[in-house]
Inverse folding.
């Protein structure tokens, strides 16, 4: 069954307190008053929506029917409230549930009540799930937007810091031994560093040469573990064969990024 927006809204508007809330209160006076009100409401609902013919004064049989219905609701559907029970029959009467709620010779019973409330509970649960999923998506979207704003703010602060530090180094002429590799991307993107392609190629070749020297030095170091030496030999072989892998590419890029900044400061 396709759920209309107006129906969704009406069900959500009615979803507040429930019959169970009063039962949990252990307030005998409130519980008795709720039970009395529920009995009256069931008579009105049955007469209004099912063609039942309960009179203004109930005989013993009718009293027992209504009492059984009230007990049934409190045992199996106490999560609803009285407005929702009426809403359930209103929806059923409109034909949105595949249920015949017309009474047999005007006799209302627990069977009719159970079918209607069961159908309503299914619809209600479906709507709640839809709303919760929509709310979850909205919260995720909001979090993504907030995270994006935080990242953009952090990036802006980082860019400002890097540019400021770079300019200070330019003015002082005191070039530090270790330039962070991430500076290169920021300074190139901001147009502060601008090498032509030929110079970029030369710097990249120098970066590869530096990586090769660094690996060779590490291989010869006494403290290098055997397993690390095996890996270094593999990497050096790739280098001499003019080949590469992910690890080597990362080392090349790191060294190239540092050299880009250093060369621009010469």
């Amino acid at each position: 069954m396709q759920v209309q927006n107006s129906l969704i809204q009406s069900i959500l508007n009615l979803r507040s307190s429930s019959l169970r809330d009063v039962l949990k209160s252990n307030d005998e006076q409130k519980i008795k008053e709720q039970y009395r009100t529920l009995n009256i409401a069931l008579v009105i609902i049955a007469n209004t929506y099912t063609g039942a013919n309960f009179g203004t004064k109930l005989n013993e049989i009718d009293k027992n029917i209504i009492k059984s219905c009230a007990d049934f609701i409190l045992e199996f559907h106490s999560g609803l409230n009285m407005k929702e029970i009426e809403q359930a029959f209103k929806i059923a009467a409109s034909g949105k549930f595949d249920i015949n709620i017309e009474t047999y010779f005007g006799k209302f019973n627990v069977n009719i009540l159970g079918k209607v409330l069961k159908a309503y509970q299914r619809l209600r649960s479906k709507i709640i799930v839809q709303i919760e999923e929509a709310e979850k998506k909205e919260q995720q979207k909001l979090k993504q937007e907030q995270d994006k704003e935080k990242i953009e703010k952090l990036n802006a602060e980082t860019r400002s810091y890097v540019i400021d530090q770079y300019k200070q180094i330019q003015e002082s002429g005191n070039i530090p031994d270790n330039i962070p590799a991430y500076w290169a991307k920021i300074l190139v993107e901001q147009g502060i560093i601008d090498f032509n392609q030929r110079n970029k190629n030369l710097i990249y070749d120098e970066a590869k040469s530096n990586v090769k020297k660094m690996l060779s030095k590490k291989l010869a170091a006494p403290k290098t573990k055997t397993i690390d030496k095996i890996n270094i030999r593999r990497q050096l072989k790739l280098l001499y064969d003019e080949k590469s892998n992910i690890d080597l590419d990362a080392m090349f890029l790191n060294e190239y990024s540092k050299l880009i900044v250093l060369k621009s400061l010469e």
